[in-house]
């Protein structure tokens, strides 16, 4: 067996080749790209011996540790057939402390540490899953879609903070700062003086383009708030704030457009995936939310050996800490933020879609659990149901999934 540690950077890789006894066979700094990958293949071939010509034999004897699971370099390693372990940086840091308590660190030393880690602890590590290209495409668009939504929220908060400092009337007049009508009116009138000059016709036109209801009453109310007397800032300060709000308004308009565009891409890529039908059959999952769940779980059906393994990865299952007479059960706080967000949203939506999910949630609340713990337990249960459906290739069935809970609720 040949064990390789790969400490990656943006433009190079520090690699070390190690044999089963822990002896260093070779080390090098390789450039990112085709030339570096060709040199790595040559180093591996030389280390294994020139008498081995079968690519399958060479690939099966090579294990590589690297602190990432993305990028063309990693994909090339997987395509070559090597066993690649995407080591969590937190795991790597803890292993490094075992080897060097002084805190010393270098790229070459990290490559040595990763090689030694896959040599001694590969049974504790998870090889990279064999997700399909379709699943990878879903992950790319769903992650960017969610990132832009998060960025829109941050930008809205920045605008709210700015308006509160010099134009608090706008916060009273407009409920949703990233809505189309709000952005249109703030672009025309980003300061109190110009906002007070807005006519009913101008406000009504913006509301109509945003397809608001009860336009006349809302326009009258907005104008009344904007024309009322409020505390303000000196003119020069107000002008400075207005320029920042105008910039944030333009940014929010662009974010709204791109979020809508990417949502179409998410739905298109997800709709073409073979698992889409089963995922969409789950309660609380639509096209966008289902795409996020697929993207973060992946579509390699051999990756999770059991429903418990999938629940542990999802971080919906609790952690038990027991020592002597002391025992505590706590939520997992180290997790995939995107996956947990999607699963908790699914659980909340399932309360309205699934009688079984509602009965399960109510049962947890009756036992004294708060809203969030009960919702987390429901999410955990839904992850197990999803695992069973994907494993057997069958869509969700309400009666099968919740038979015992529905009977208890009826009783």
Structural account:
There is one protein chain. The protein is of the alpha/beta class. It folds into three domains: 2-128, Nucleotidyltransferase, domain 5; 137-268, Helix Hairpins (Orthogonal Bundle), CATH 1.10.287; 277-410, no CATH class. The protein is 63% helix and 10% strand. The chain is built from 19 helices and seven strands. The protein has helices at residues 34-48, 55-60, 72-79, 89-99, 107-121, 133-166, 168-173, 180-188, 192-196, 200-209, 215-227, 235-271, 276-280, 287-297, 307-314, 337-353, 355-366, 371-392, 398-410, and strands at residues 2-8, 12-18, 24-31, 62-66, 83-86, 319-323, 326-330. The strands form two sheets. A five-stranded mixed β-sheet has the order 3-2-1-4-5. Strands 6-7 form a two-stranded antiparallel sheet. Helix 6 packs antiparallel against helix 12. The longest helix has 37 residues, at 235-271. The chain is globular and about 85 Å long. It starts with a strand and ends with a helix.
Which helices and strands occur, and which strands form pairs?
Elements: E1 2-8, E2 12-18, E3 24-31, H1 34-48, H2 55-60, E4 62-66, H3 72-79, E5 83-86, H4 89-99, H5 107-121, H6 133-166, H7 168-173, H8 180-188, H9 192-196, H10 200-209, H11 215-227, H12 235-271, H13 276-280, H14 287-297, H15 307-314, E6 319-323, E7 326-330, H16 337-353, H17 355-366, H18 371-392, H19 398-410
Parallel strand pairs: 1-4, 4-5
Antiparallel strand pairs: 1-2, 2-3, 6-7
């Amino acid at each position: 067996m040949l064990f390789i540690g790969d400490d990656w950077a943006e433009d190079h890789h520090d690699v070390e080749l190690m044999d089963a006894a822990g002896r260093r066979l070779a080390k090098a700094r390789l450039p990112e790209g085709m030339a570096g990958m060709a040199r790595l293949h040559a180093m591996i071939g030389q280390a294994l011996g020139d008498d081995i010509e079968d690519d399958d034999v060479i690939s099966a004897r090579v294990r590589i540790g690297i602190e990432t699971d993305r990028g063309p370099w990693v994909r090339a390693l997987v395509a070559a057939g090597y066993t690649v372990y995407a080591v969590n940086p937190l795991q790597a840091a803890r292993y490094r402390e075992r080897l060097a308590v002084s805190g010393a660190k270098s790229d070459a030393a990290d490559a040595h540490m990763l090689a030694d880690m896959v040599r001694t602890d590969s049974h504790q590590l998870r090889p990279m899953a064999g997700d399909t290209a379709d699943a990878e495409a879903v992950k790319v668009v769903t992650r960017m879609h969610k990132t832009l939504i998060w960025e829109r929220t941050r930008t809205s908060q920045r605008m709210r903070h700015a308006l509160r400092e010099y134009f608090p009337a706008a916060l009273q007049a407009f409920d949703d700062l990233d809505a189309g009508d709000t952005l249109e009116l703030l672009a025309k009138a980003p300061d109190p003086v110009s906002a007070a000059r807005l006519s009913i016709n101008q406000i009504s036109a913006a509301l109509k383009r945003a397809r608001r209801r009860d336009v006349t009453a809302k326009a009258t109310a907005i104008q009344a708030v904007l024309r009322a007397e409020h505390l303000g800032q000196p003119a020069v300060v107000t002008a400075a704030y207005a320029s920042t709000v105008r910039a944030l308004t333009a940014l929010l308009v662009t974010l709204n457009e791109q979020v809508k565009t990417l949502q179409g891409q998410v739905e298109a890529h997800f709709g073409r995936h073979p698992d889409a039908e089963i995922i969409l059959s789950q309660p609380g999952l639509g096209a966008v939310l289902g795409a996020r769940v697929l993207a973060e779980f992946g579509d390699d059906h051999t990756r999770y050996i059991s429903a418990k393994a999938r629940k542990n990865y999802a971080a919906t299952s609790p952690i038990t800490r027991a020592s002597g007479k002391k025992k505590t059960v706590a939520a997992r706080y180290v997790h995939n933020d995107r996956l947990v967000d999607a699963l908790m949203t699914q659980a909340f939506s399932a309360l309205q879609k699934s009688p079984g999910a509602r009965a399960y949630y109510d049962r947890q609340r009756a036992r004294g659990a708060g809203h969030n713990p009960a919702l987390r337990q429901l999410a955990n249960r839904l992850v197990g149901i999803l695992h069973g459906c994907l494993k057997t290739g069958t869509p969700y069935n309400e009666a099968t999934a919740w038979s015992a809970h529905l009977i208890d609720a009826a009783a």
